[in-house]
Amino acid sequence: MALSIRWFGDVGQPPGICEVPLETFTPALDHLAGLSDHLVVLGTSKGAEAALLLAVRDPRIRTVVALSPTSVVWESVGSTGGPRSSWTSAGTPLPFVPYDPTWTGQEEPPAFRSLYEQSLTAFPGAVAAATIPVEQIRGQVLLSAGGDDRVWPSHRFAADIVARRAAHGRDDLPRLRCRRRPRAVSRTIDPVGRRW
Q: Among 14, 57, 74, 162, which lies 20 to 30 A Cα-Cα from 21?
């Protein structure tokens, strides 16, 4: 059995990916745990960020699949009122890497990879605090990332995840493979709030 969850933009939910409680996913995990003892979570992009964070916190998750992942928690997408985390746990916002306000990406079609790369350089202290502790994931981790991802440097992030797990004796990931295929960028809203 598989479930797909709407976790923002619905009634009673944050309108964007802003301080989304990780507990939002708990009822679905509880339901699935009643049907199987092999829980798998899968996410793409920001969903991969959530999937990794869930697998760190919930030992019932035996496999996490992160497509176009990140290795750190990022500032929210689509929020107003200053930088805020994308996620909370037990009501507390998770540490995050903010977007560099000096970024002036003008690429066409829109691409945000340079925003994320510039933000990593601009806020090294935030990177350390916001790094997802993937070495705490008890289950298997499967990563897929593209070398020409135009949204964010997912291949770099996947390599960071592999290295962090290996540094903690968790050298259980399959070898990273990269295809030079770009990941398309949505033209609805970008991380820093411009509408297309």
A: 162
The whole-angstrom separation of Cα 168 and Cα 166 is 5
Determine contact, residues 93/84, Cβ cutoff 8 Å.
Answer: yes
**What is the pTM for the complete model shown?**
0.88
Distance of CA 193 to the CA centre of its chain: 18
Residue-wise burial string across 105-116, b where 16 or more C-beta atoms lie within 10 A, e elsewhere: beeeebbbbbbb
Joined tokens for residue 20: 């989304």
Residue in the block written with tokens 């176009």: 68
What is the chain's alpha carbon radius of gyration, rounded to the nearest angstrom?
A: 16
At 120, give phi and psi (nearest 5°): -60, -40
Pairing of strands 178-183, 140-149: parallel
Taking only the tens place, the pLDDT of each residue in 55-107 is 999 999 999 999 999 999 999 987 788 899 999 999 999 999 999 999 988 77
How far is the C-alpha of 7 from the C-alpha of 12, rounded, in Å?
Answer: 10
Torsion of Cα atoms, 151 then 126 then 74 then 13, to 10°: -170
Residue with tokens 């790094």: 131
Q: Tell me what pLDDT residue 174 has.
A: 58
